[in-house]
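Service request form, structural biology core

Requester: graduate student, group of Dr. S.
Request type: structure prediction, single chain
Budget code: on file
Notes: please return the result as structure tokens.

Sequence provided:
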Amino acid sequence: MHDLTSYIPLCLGVFAGALVSGFAGFAFSAVAGVFILHVRAPNEAVPLMMACSIVIQAANFAILRNRLSWRGSATFVIGGVLGIPPALYLLQHADTARFRIGFGLFLAVYAAYMLLRPAMALLKQAQSRQRDALVGFAGGFVGGLTAMPGALPTIWCDLRGLPKAEQRGMVQPFIAAMQLLALLMMLSRRSIPPGTMSDFVVSLPALVAGTTVGLLMFGRVNETVFRRVVLIVLLVSGLGLLA
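Core staff response, request fulfilled:
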């Protein structure tokens, strides 16, 4: 049994992560993990954050259903399916702390640079199925280790200068597919701790509240503000992984 006081930072983390993810479309685990990983071990925190992320994506699908691009995200998903199994193996059998620190440093440096440079598409003509599949593979691999599969596809969309609606339409289905697949694989291996379900139930009101506020904020900002907020979220996410 967990100490009852540990549920306070858990619910605060879930609310903060849901708020950011509802607005930006990703980074639930990066934001929530800053709180949750102080009161739960990684093998408990990762499946909990995956389950919460799936609920957020379901809400996104309901609200943003006309903006989703299933065809555009399909190649990401195919690559991501191949990236998840080796990541889950490493999660259970290796020390992933160094990987998280390295990935956090990459996110922080990338976001800081992009915030300082003028907004422009650096790789506007770089889209191809092969590159999208590689980005999807990397996103699936990272997601299996950190419960944060959306960071790399989001960076890829930003580099190509995609507008916020198109970016959300491509990244949301990918995140949902990766989190659902990873969680199902954990369930099949019986590697989810028994306390995860009770943590999920307790945090559900905070999850719903944060997601609702985030989605309301998303509909009220322009492209420039959205891009800057996404980069700030990436920066905070990277610093959170470093911490």
